[in-house]
Specification:
mainly alpha, 2 domains, two-stranded antiparallel ribbon, 53% helix, binds iron/sulfur cluster
Length: 167
């Protein structure tokens, strides 16, 4: 519901994200001790509720600060859309990082536009579609990531804040 979205959730994240780092690590430790069923019960619906308030187009911090991992299917799809050869696309936009993953070679992402929209939205990498990994069972599978992502993503920050009230 666009009418429920305002920038205050993003401001709140910006102001408090550094202060909750230690608490978030402790929270993730406690969550990782829960069984899958309990974890799913307390986290169910949080992704949708938080994204009713947080508007990615007011943020785009993931696109500005975390180069997405890209697989071969992604490169073929993006190169085709841009009318480029895969090798040319890789030369221009891709690098291999310290973990030996292929990632976008620039940050902010070269496809991020001034209005925070993605120039290749329909063709974007799988990693961009899945970020911030908080939907349904994805939440439980990526617990350790959430403590890090809360610093970069206001939605993850607010999901963890909500969970603190439930434990
Ligand atoms: S950092 Fe989170 S809230 Fe911001 S644009 Fe990315 S997914 Fe959306
Ligand atoms: S490809 Fe699009 S969604 Fe992915 S980081 Fe770049 S601008 Fe963001």
């Amino acid at each position: 519901m666009e009418e429920n979205k305002d920038k205050s959730s993003i401001e709140d994240w910006r102001n408090r994200r550094n202060k909750v780092k230690v608490h978030n690590k402790k929270l993730i430790k406690r969550l990782s001790k829960l069984n899958d069923k309990k974890l799913h019960v307390i986290s169910e619906g949080l992704h949708d509720r938080v994204f009713e308030k947080v508007n990615c187009l007011d943020c785009a911090n993931c696109c500005k600060s975390i180069p997405p991992i890209i697989n071969e299917t992604d490169t073929r799809r993006m190169a085709k859309h841009l009318g480029m050869k895969v090798t040319t696309f890789k030369d221009k936009f891709v690098k291999v990082d310290e973990d030996m993953d292929m990632v976008m070679n620039q940050s902010p992402c070269p496809f991020l536009q001034e209005d925070n929209k993605c120039l290749i939205y329909e063709y974007r990498p799988k990693a961009c579609r899945e970020y911030p990994h908080t939907e349904d069972f994805e939440f439980a599978k990526n617990l350790k990531l959430h403590a890090v992502n809360a610093h970069y993503c206001p939605a993850v920050f607010h999901i963890l804040e909500d969970l603190k009230t439930k434990l």
